[in-house]
Amino acid sequence: MKEIPLSIILISYNHEKYIREAIESILMQNVDFEYEIIFADDASTDNTTKIIKEYDNKIKNKQYLFSKENHGNTYNTWNAIVNCRGKYFIVLEGDDYWIWKEKIKTQYHFLKDNPDYIGVSDLRCEVNKKGRIITHSPEWVKKECDTNLNDFLNLKFFSCVETMYKNIYKKEANNKNLQEIFTSDKMICDLFQCIYSLKNGNIHLFNKDGAIYRTITSGNNSNYNSTKKIANISLDHLHILNRIDAYYNNELALKKLYGKFIFPIFANGILSFNLQNYKKAKEIVDKKYIKYFRTHFIYFLGIYLKILINKIIKTIK
């Protein structure tokens, strides 16, 4: 399989309302290198694949990975990544789209000129189902900078879906252990992907809005945030953290990550007068992480109060 500079992976499942905007945002990119688009559709039951095929004559290099049965977002993503021909790859969800015309050109040339980096990212504008901007993420990025694994484990997150990566998965296509951890949850793979990438190098961040990210989409059951409540989302992440902890033989300092996902379960239980999910969390998580959470309650409370205040201010505006 001949290598090319970049693979753009477009992940879709029942995205007929949004898929054209996603494809057009790829085609508007100013580039000076060859790329392919991998259309990875997870057995859509609407007109998503039909709309994708409308672009057949407009796209020179492409792969259609149309699944005959629904496997879930993580397997769909994994399957696309291991089929990449690109030296680098980037993933775009079918209900999101890029707004920076120089995005992939800027990112590609940065990685080409800086081979020690594992990836390069930018900011995303998170919008609600009415299209109103909620926030620019990650909020901690105020200027162009680098980030590393220690930053991530201390809750300095970057946008996995905004990131162009060096394709280190080529040699891992037949690694069953890696596939198992990558696809351990049907919908969530970004947490492990971020950690796995940062274990292999640093990521550079441009202080530039690169894409629109829909946190919730109307009438689309493929959007994880649209179909899950915050307590259940957090429980799912705790399960994943347990698997990540085991995968790395308990070598990572995951305490703050555990605390981040335990706190909303506890807070939600207090507000709803129902600590059922918190009890589930205590059963899932190792006692050492529960203890850490309790001693850092004020720390996490401060984070969430800040988020709440910002949302209230934006709502008023």
Explain what this protein looks like in three dimensions:
This protein is α/β, with parallel strands linked by helices and 317 residues long. The chain folds into 2 domains: 4-224, Spore Coat Polysaccharide Biosynthesis Protein SpsA, Chain A; 228-316, no CATH class. Helices cover 42% and strands 20% of the residues. It contains 13 helices and 10 strands. Strands 1, 2, 3, 4, 5, 6, 7, 8, 9 and 10 form a 10-stranded mixed β-sheet that branches. The longest helix is centred in the last third of the chain and has 20 residues, at 297-316. The N and C termini lie far apart (53 Å).
List keywords for this structure.
ten-stranded mixed beta sheet, Spore Coat Polysaccharide Biosynthesis Protein SpsA, Chain A, alpha/beta, about 325 residues, single chain, 13 helices
Explain briefly what this protein structure is.
The protein is of the alpha/beta class and 317 residues long. The protein has helices at 19-27, 48-53, 73-81, 103-113, 149-153, 176-182, 190-198, 224-227, 230-247, 255-272, 276-284, 287-295, 297-316; strands spanning 4-12, 35-41, 62-66, 86-93, 97-98, 119-127, 133-137, 145-147, 164-166, 203-214.
